Amino acid sequence: MQRKPMAITETVEQAGAPGSGATSRRRAGQALTWLGIAPFLIFALLFLILPTLQLMVGALQDAQGHFTLNNIARLFTDDILGAYWISFKVSFVSAAGGALIGLLLALAAIQGGLPGWIRPTLMTFSGVASNFAGVPLAFAFLATLGRIGLLTALLRQYLDFDLYGTGFSILSFTGLTLTYLYFQIPLMVLIVAPAIDGMKAEWREACESLGGGTWYFWWHVALPILFPSILGSALLLFANAFGAVATAYALTGSSLNIVPILLFAQIRGDVLHDQNLGYALALGMIVVTGLSNAGYIWLRSRAERGVA
Q1: Dihedral angle at the C-alpha atoms of 78, 83, 84, 89, nearest 10 degrees?
Q2: pLDDT digit string (tens) for 162-171?
Q3: Closest residue by Cα to residue 237 from 287, 289, 198
Q4: Among 185, 189, 215, 277, fewest CB within 10 Å belongs to which?
Q5: Is 70-307 assigned to CATH 1.10.3720.10?
Q6: Which regions span the lipid bilayer (predicted)?
Q7: Is the whole model's pTM more than 0.90, yes or no?
C-alpha cells in the first residue's frame, strides 16, 4: 500500500518532465527572440526615443535651463509660420505629384502588359533613386537645370528656349519641388507596388461578366480598393519631404526659408543661434511627420483588411 503513492509520484514526474522540457525550450526561444530584436530596440532608444525626449525638454526651457513656454509661443510668429507654410506647400505638391506619377508608373509596369524586363528594371531604379538625396542630388540638379546646366544649355542652343527667361530658377520653390520629385516618384512606386500586386484577376473577370468595361472596373472597383493605399502613400511622401533638410540646404542654401533650413540656422548658425527655439521647431516637425506617419499606418491597415 505504501509503494503505490511512490509509483504514482514517479509516474507524475515522468509525465511532467516533457512538459517542463518544452517550457524550458519555449523560454529559451523567447530569450533568443528578444536577443535578436535587441539591436533594433537599442537603436530606436538611442536615435529616436531619447533624442525626441531631449527635444521636448529643450523646447520647454530657456538658455538658462528654466521652464518656459516662450519657445512654443514663438512658433506662431509670422516668420516661423511662413516657413512652415512654405514647407507645407513644397511637401504637398511634391507628395501629390510623386503619388500620381508613381502610381501611373507602377500600374503601367505591373498591369500594363509591358515586356517582362520593364518591372524589375523599374523596381531596381526606384530602390536606388528613392535613396539618392542630399548633396549629390542637389549637385546633379544644379548641373542639369542650373543657369549653366546641361539641359538649360541644350534648350538654349537647339530650341532657342531660355529656361531662365521664363522666371524659372532651380533655387526657387519650383526648383526644390522638382528636385524632391526625383526621390518621391520612385518611393511611391516601391510603396504602392504591393497594393497593385494584391489586385485579384477574379475581380476584373467578375466585373466584365456583369457587363462592366475597363473604365467601370477602375473607377468603381480598383480605385476604391487602392484608395487607402494611395492616400497613405501620399501621406508618407509628405512626411518624407517635410523632414528633408540636406537636399534643400545644399540646393537653395538660405534663399528659401523652409522649416528644416530655419531649424539648421537656429541650431548651428552664428547669427540666428537659439538652440531652444530650434528644439521647438524640431518638435513641431516631429508632430507634423508623426501625424502623417500615423495616418499612413492606419490607412495601410485598412487597405490590408480590404484586400484580404
Answers
A1: 120
A2: 999 998 999 8
A3: 289
A4: 215
A5: yes
A6: 31-50, 84-110, 122-150, 170-196, 217-238, 244-265, 277-299
A7: no
